[in-house]
């Protein structure tokens, strides 16, 4: 994004067409043929995918937007070079099932995360994915709410529950606690009975307290390492020196879960401090999705959606998300 490109003045992508087979069903997708800023995204007509064995075809109602979408649009970190369609979060309706699928039928409402990182493609009118990447959409929330959950909530669940085994009475520090992963992690940690401290700018402390945070740290004016009691778990969404400095606030035997690759220095410091330091890459996980759906059904988990954008304005959503100033999640609406 150039210095003059803001979320307000980035134009909606023009409709372009991609070759398709004669008579084959088509769909619209937020597509790119080059790496770059939000302006590389184009609303493009593409062939509608067909579900293979073990897959379902989903008519996308809404699709969440995550920082990994911005990074892959610009750098294609894990994915092959463009052309590509991004998006891992999806909520929609099953249209067709592939051979061998027994869990879902056409007409079922589902939500889930496409296999990360190689299964991207939900920023489109239709998408295919493994049936077991999806779960039944909770009846009490709409597709926008459901689409905001999968990648971020699975990340928080896999970090705090599967990896750190967070338990009642333990103390957890969550960095960037008002962000997409962070605000869901606060709720999951509270549901587990933990004492939660979150870092965020002072303007977002009220939001965090509403989610259940016990203590808020203003990262602009306070030092998160200034704590009277050590933590059992730290969830690091920032990496770099934040991850390394987080080791010092953990008790011996504590766990640092970082979402940012790298950190050789952090692991060395952690080893000397007798702390476990790991890097997590989220995985599609039906058991996790069902657990998340259960939290939603019990009223213990809800995504904060700070903005929605129609598919045609996906470039504007990317531009806003890249500012790093949004609270919670952004969602692209399709139907």
In brief, what are we looking at here?
The chain is an alpha/beta fold and about 325 residues long.
How do the strands and helices of this protein lay out in sequence?
Blueprint: E1 15-17, E2 26-32, E3 42-47, E4 55-65, H1 67-75, E5 84-85, E6 89-97, E7 109-113, E8 126-130, E9 134-136, H2 143-147, H3 150-163, E10 171-174, H4 180-191, E11 195-200, H5 205-211, E12 215-218, E13 231-236, H6 240-246, E14 250-258, H7 264-272, E15 276-279, H8 286-297, E16 305-310, H9 314-321, E17 329-333
Parallel strand pairs: 1-3, 10-11, 10-13, 11-12, 13-14, 14-15, 16-17
Antiparallel strand pairs: 2-3, 2-5, 4-6, 4-8, 4-17, 6-7, 7-9
Give an account of the 3D structure:
The protein folds into two domains: 15-149 and 303-333, Medium-chain alcohol dehydrogenases, catalytic domain (Quinone Oxidoreductase, Chain A, domain 1, Alpha-Beta Complex), CATH 3.90.180.10; 152-279, 3-Layer(aba) Sandwich (Rossmann fold), CATH 3.40.50. Helices cover 25% and strands 28% of the residues. The chain has helices at 67-75, 143-147, 150-163, 180-191, 205-211, 240-246, 264-272, 286-297, 314-321, and strands spanning 15-17, 26-32, 42-47, 55-65, 84-85, 89-97, 109-113, 126-130, 134-136, 171-174, 195-200, 215-218, 231-236, 250-258, 276-279, 305-310, 329-333. Strands 4, 6, 7, 8, 9, 16 and 17 form a seven-stranded mixed β-sheet that branches. A six-stranded parallel β-sheet has the order 12-11-10-13-14-15, with helices on both faces. It has a four-stranded mixed β-sheet with strand order 1-3-2-5, with no helix packed on it. Helix 4 links the parallel strand 10 (171-174) and strand 11. It is globular, with a radius of gyration of 20 Å.
């Amino acid at each position: 994004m150039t210095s003059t490109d803001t979320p307000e003045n980035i134009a909606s992508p023009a409709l372009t067409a991609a070759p398709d087979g004669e008579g084959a069903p088509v769909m619209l997708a937020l597509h790119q043929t080059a790496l770059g800023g939000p302006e590389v995204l184009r609303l493009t007509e593409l062939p509608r995918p067909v579900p293979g064995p073990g897959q379902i075809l989903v008519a996308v109602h809404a699709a969440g937007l995550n920082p990994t979408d911005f990074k892959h649009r610009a750098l294609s970190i894990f994915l092959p070079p463009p052309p590509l369609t991004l998006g891992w979060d999806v909520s929609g309706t099953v249209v067709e099932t592939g051979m061998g699928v027994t869990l879902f039928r056409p007409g079922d409402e589902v939500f889930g995360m496409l296999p990360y990182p190689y299964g991207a493609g939900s920023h489109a009118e239709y998408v295919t994915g493994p049936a077991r990447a999806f779960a039944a959409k909770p009846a009490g929330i709409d597709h926008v709410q459901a689409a905001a959950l999968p990648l971020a909530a699975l990340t928080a669940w896999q970090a705090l529950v599967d990896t750190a085994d967070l338990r009642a009475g333990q103390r957890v520090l969550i960095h960037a606690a008002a962000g997409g992963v962070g605000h869901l992690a606060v709720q999951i940690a509270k549901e587990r009975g933990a004492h939660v401290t979150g870092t965020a700018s002072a303007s977002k402390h009220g939001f965090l307290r509403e989610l259940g945070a016990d203590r808020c740290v203003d990262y602009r004016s306070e030092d998160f390492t200034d704590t009277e009691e050590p933590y059992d778990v730290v969830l690091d969404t920032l990496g770099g020196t934040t991850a390394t400095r987080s080791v010092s606030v953990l008790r011996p035997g504590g766990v640092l879960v970082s979402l940012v690759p790298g950190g050789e220095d952090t692991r060395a410091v952690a080893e000397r401090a007798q702390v476990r330091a790991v890097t997590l890459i989220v995985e599609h996980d039906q058991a996790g999705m069902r657990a998340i759906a259960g939290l939603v059904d019990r009223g213990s988990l809800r995504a904060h959606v700070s903005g929605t954008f129609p598919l045609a304005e996906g470039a504007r959503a990317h531009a806003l998300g890249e500012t790093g100033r949004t609270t919670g999640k952004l969602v692209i609406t399709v139907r």
